[in-house]
Amino acid sequence: MNWRDWRLAFYLAAAGLLWSVVVGVLLYLLPLGTSVGASSSGAEVETRERVFTLSLSSVWPLIVPVLLCALAAWAAARHHRTPLIIAAVLLAVFALLGLLSIGVAYVPAVLLLIVSVLASSPVRQAPTDGDSGRPQRE
């Protein structure tokens, strides 16, 4: 497989999408911590505190990276380089802004999209018809 190939770009973008989905599910399901309190009957009750609840206003930080990686995978599958670059830049900005919280979990997806952009870059081919740009001798 060639280094500069749209299939490779798509596989890398799809891997970034898979990473974002797995990270989003884990961040949603894993508890932040536990706390012990007393119930009305006097028994101790252990509750698990989550970072995110099921409301759309609190889940959007988990949805945005998935949508950006999905856009990147779609762009790589359709051989559109500009949306791929835009999605990579926006995901990098998102990860940078949230670097002290959940943004660090999306750094591998950002790296996968950057390599995907590099793999999709156009390569200048050597002329095949004998025209090398130099004057011909006769």
Q: What characteristics describe this protein?
A:
elongated; 138 residues; two-stranded antiparallel sheet; 4 helices; mainly alpha; 2 strands
Describe this structure in words.
There is one protein chain. This protein has 138 residues and is mainly α. It has one domain. The chain is 56% helix and 11% strand. The protein is built from four helices and two strands. It has a two-stranded antiparallel sheet. Helix 1 packs antiparallel against helix 4 and helix 2 packs antiparallel against helix 3. The longest helix is centred in the first third of the chain and has 24 residues. It is elongated, with a radius of gyration of 23 Å. 24% of the residues are buried. The mean pLDDT is 82.
Write down the overall mean pLDDT: 82
Query: How many domains comprise the coordinates?
Result: 1
**Weakly predicted, low-confidence segments:** none
Number of strands: 2
* Neighbour order of strands in the largest sheet: 1-2
Rg, Cα atoms, Å: 23 Å
Relative helix content: 55-70%
Instruction: Name the beta content range.
Output: 5-15%
Q: Report how far apart the termini are.
A: 40 Å
SS-based class? mainly alpha
Overall shape:
elongated
The biggest sheet, with number of strands, parallel, antiparallel or mixed sense and barrel status, is:
2 strands, antiparallel
* N-to-C SSE string, H for helix and E for strand: HEEHHH
Number of H/I helices:
4
